[in-house]
Amino acid sequence: MSAVATSARVAAGELAETVADEVRAGGRFAGLFATGRAGGSTTLRAVVARAGSLVLTEAELGPGESRYPALTPLVPAASWYEREIHDLFGIEPSGHRRLDPLVLPLRAGCHRPRPGDPAGTDRIELDVAPLPAHVRGEGVFTIPYGPVRSGVFESVEYLVETRGEEISHLRTRVYHKHRGLDRRFSELGVDDALLLAERVEGTAAVAHALAFSQAIEELAGIEPPRSAQLLRVLHAELERVAVHLDSVIRHAEGAGQAVAYARMSRHREELLRLRARLCGHRFGRGVVVPGGVTGPARAEPEQALAHVNALEAAIAEDARALMATPSFLDRLRGTGVLPRDVAAAHGALGPVGRASGQGEDVRVQRPYGAYRHLGCEPAATDAEGDALARQHVRLAEIRQAFHLARQALEELVDGASSTWRVAVPPVSGVAVASVEAPQGELLYLVEAEGGRLARVKPRSASFHNLALLPRAFGGDIFTDFVFIEASFGLSIAGVAG
Amino acid sequence: MAWVWRGLRDGIVTTRYPRRPDDYGEGFHGTIVVVDHGIAHGDASHRAAASAAFRCPTGAIAESGGEVRVDRGRCILCGRCVAARPDVFAFSSSLEAAAVARTALVVPQTEEDDGALVAVREALQRRVRALRRSIHVRHVDAGSDGSEEWEVAALTNPIYDVQRLGIFFTASPRHADVLLVTGAGTLAMAEPLRATFEAMPDPKVVIAAGTDATSGGLLAPSYATSAGVDSVVPVDVWVPGSPPSPFSLLHGILLGVGLLGSSRPR
Known about the structure:
CATH class of the domain at 112-256 in chain B: Alpha Beta
Structural class of chain B: alpha/beta
Largest sheet of chain B: 5 strands, parallel
Low-confidence stretches of chain B: 262-266
Mean pLDDT of chain A: 93
Number of helices of chain B: 9
Distance between the termini of chain A: 27 Å
Radius of gyration of chain A: 22 Å
Oligomer: heterodimer
Helix content of chain B: 25-40%
Number of strands of chain B: 10
Largest interface: A-B, 64 and 61 residues
CATH architecture of the domain at 112-256 in chain B: 3-Layer(aba) Sandwich
């Protein structure tokens, strides 16, 4: 059950070298997180994924210690994590060469929120002035795109550097949506924190509830009933279909495929309605709880099975037609290539990684819940790395998700037990849980003391992958932008925190 | 050409709402009501006291004057009160959930609220008379969780198809009549939101879409967000829900531009 195999404690000065060694030995850097403590000290925790387990390395910074040797020069994938820690804690990773504000641009000298530390500030003073907006070079200029954008989108600002048409570089600013979730989490009890977890990334509510619940279950040393595990798989896989379908819809819209857009949008509506029939909520909230699920599916499993099958057939048929439409494929082919080596070095997650040859999938590498016996096949991979490859991977994952959902339903038809939930005792300790959310590996670091949550830190796949978005612009032009963004399928809410 | 036939294949799938009631919207769990089965006054106050003791995660349940009330503007529809006290609370429809006054989201309503509400509604209708039957909506995300955007975008799918009602989404605030705001109002979005509002021509209608936009929901109090977008732009219509269902959103838009009958939550 436990996702963390080993955990080591090192001096703050050795953290960078230790993590770099783990990565050199074949590990994938998965995150760096901080917890503030009363009294002013801070714990840093690095997570590295290695051969079916997670390796956790801890280092402590005493009160008044506000610097440590940065990981980024040795492990470039750590860059955004260190910028986030700098924003929220005011801790400086020395040697980090681009410490621009990421999630929270604060006035210099302003108190920091320091999640985990009860004395962290509840008042902040924003200052967006230090964000660079100017570029130098012959004929180069920047175009700000966002935060209010043309259409129904989440708020994010892209700063496009260009000479006129070709996008030479892209900078992303996500701080507009920063909601202070990290601090809010530690003000809530386990029950209410679950509700907040469902709202970190509203479109992946099931995955978040699942990862949070698994962390609590690991700390409590409990295992949810078999039926609950099957129901979790059903909801998680239907959520995967919905999120991937969203990417398909955006591609179709961007390419001006009006009928495909309309039909795929309708399929998604039917899917959300099916999910609501199963649990009362269109986004699957209120299903997964620590210890199991809130109760059986509201619809009869036989009925749900018929709906799932009909929906799968309808989506598959339109997807086939779309992938045989040359005017659609032309827009995606060769667009936004994320090179294989870049994806590997950064440890690109989910469909974005898989489209650039990275096969990792938590359901396969570190199976959890009912995935352990359902036999999840390694997800489809592609090596082209362009928007079309990402689309191929997503469509393959839709097929696989339907297959898993059907398996879970069939087993529920065959024999659902009457227990759906086991009691959760007050928990203490530190746990890192991971699930394969629709956009890739989702991590939850949970730290509890006597039933109180000292720190809950979600790390969405979007946070890890968004840092790669600028690397996918190799000679692409403005009109490619919509496809590159849609093919990354990012949730900004999950990035900004 | 193949796509043309494919597009015609399934006939009309669009809802008849608002002209006719819609079964899905009617049956969908979009609001919480306080169940009233003609309970005697003594029992009612006992019940109110008991259910006030139930701890709502967002503090949406309160007791006043011997009656228990639910503030739909704070409710995130987690359903815990329904599970704990099915004799007091129940889920209800997502149709007709929006309101033209923040106080009207508190149910059951009091008599004196009713009169004030009519006045507010008439004033709003006079203001938007010039908009008639071509409504352009500018959406701004002020710190949503991402699901609200899906529900807003769903309004253009063939099932809701708001274009049939003369409602269109626009990119430019200069063309917009309605400002549809999702999210609790993050500090960093306050300025862009205000600028969007300022750029819109009069008359304009502001809709707070969802519980987060109405009250901050589970996020408030926080150093990073306000407790609802009303502190940034003047809200005319409140749409409850976490996220608000497409039917609730549609009701909110129609209510805001004066294309509906009743404004009272049932």
